[in-house]
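Subject: sequence -> C-alpha cells, single chain

Hey, anyone have a minute? Need the predicted structure for the following. Not urgent.
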Amino acid sequence: MTNILKRLDNKENKSVSVHGRACPKIFLALVAVFIFFGFVRFSTANAAMLTIACYEDYRPYSYVDNKGQVVGMLVDFWILWAEKNQIELTFLPGPLTRSLDRIKTGEADIMIGLFRSEDRTKYLDFSTPMIDIQTNLYVVQKMEIDSVEELGDTIVGVIENDYVVEYLSQKYPDVRIKTFPGSAQVVKNALAGRISAYALDFPNAIFLLAENDSLLKFKRVQTLYTEKLRAGVKKGNSQLMGLINSGRKGISKQEIETILSKWGLSPPPLIVQYRVWIIGFILLLLAACIGFASYSMKLKSRMGRLKSGNRPFKKEEWLALISQGENDWLEFKSSMRWNLATLKTDKVLEAVIVKTISAFMNAKGGTLLIGVDDRGEVLGIESDYNTFQKKPDRDGFMLKLSSLVGQNMGRQSHKFISTEIQSIDGRDICRITIKPGERPVFIKEKGKESFYIRAGAASVPLSLSESHEYISSRW
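Reply:
Had a minute. Here:
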C-alpha cells in the first residue's frame, strides 16, 4: 500500500511539474497574440485617420470662415474622397509655410493642394492632377503697363514659399518681390498702398478684392502661368500616395463639376470645350456658302462703316440705325441726366448710361443712342444741355459724359469709346460706339461694385460667382 501511495505521489508531482513548465509558454503565447492583434488594430486605426494641412485664407479653395470652420472647394473634394474611402480626416489650417513644415515634420499627412516645383520635389511627392489654376499679375489701375517686363522697380507682393516665387526668380530674375504669409496679407498691403503690384491665383485675388469692395482698384495685366494643382505627401510615402491616387479615380467627373459649380468655378461651357470642332464646322459651312458670304461681307462692311462714325454724317444712315430697334448691339436712352417725367436732374439716369456702356464693353461691344426713346422716336438732348450752367451745349454734354466714364469705369476705358453728336430734324442725338473691353469692367452701384453684360436688348447684372465664371471664359 505504501509503495502504491509513493508511486501515486510521484506521478502527481510529475504532473504538477509538467504543468508548471507549460504555463509560462502559454502565457507568453497569449501575450504575443494580444500584442499582434493590438498592433494590427493600431495600424488599422492609423490607416483610417489622416491629417490634412490646408490654407487658412486661400478663397475659394481653402479658408477659415467667420464661424471658425475650414471650408472651400478643396475641402469639399477631400471630404468626398474620405467618404468614398471610409477615412476620417482632420484639417489643420495655417499659412503656406507652416503647412509645408507640417508635412516635413509628420504633423500632417497630406498637403491639401499645391503646384509641383523643382524645389518642392526635394521633400514632397505629388499626386495626379486635381484642377488647373491660373496665376495672374495684378497692378493698381493707374499704372500704364501691360506685362511683367514693364514693372521696372515696382515691388511685387507674393505669398511666402508660393510657386510664383520660384517662377519669377527663374524667368524674371530682375523683378523685385516682397513675401507675405498669405494672400489676405498680400491684398491688405496692396490696398494700404504699401505695394502697387502682386501675383496671386485666380479667383483668389478677386474674392479678396470683392470682400473689401475694391474690385476697381486693381487690374489684371498678364497671366503668368496656368498650373495643375496636386496633393502633396512627404517624399517616399508611396503607400499613402497610392491610396490618394486610387481614391481619386473613384470620384466621377460629374461630382467634381458639382463641387466646382458650388464655388463658382464651373468648367468652361461646351462651346469653349469643343471650340476647335465648332470652328471647323463653321469654316466648312462658309466654304459651302461662299457666294452668299460675299454678299454678307459687303453688307457687314456697310454696317461697320455706319457704326464706326468715320464717314461724313448722313441722316438716312442714322435713321436706318434707329429703325433697327433695340437689340444685343443697340440701345436707346431718352436723356443722359434730365428726367423727362419729374423735370429734374436725375443721377440715376447717369448711372444707367454708365451701366449700359460697361455692359457693352464686357460683351461684344455695341452702340448707345442718347436722345432717342424706346420706341425709336427722336427726342434730342437739348434738355440735358440746359442742366449745364457753364457750357449748356454739346461741349458741356461731352465733358460730362467723359467725366462719368472716367470716374466710374477708369480713364483707360476711354480708348474703347468713340462719341459724336449730330442733329436730325433740328434735334441733337449723341451716338456712343463701344468696342469690347480688354479687361473686365466693374462699376460702382449703391456703394457696391457691380458687373454687367448684354443679354438680349438689356444690360443685366451678374452675381459674384456668375461674374467669375463669365470672366474666366471671356478673358
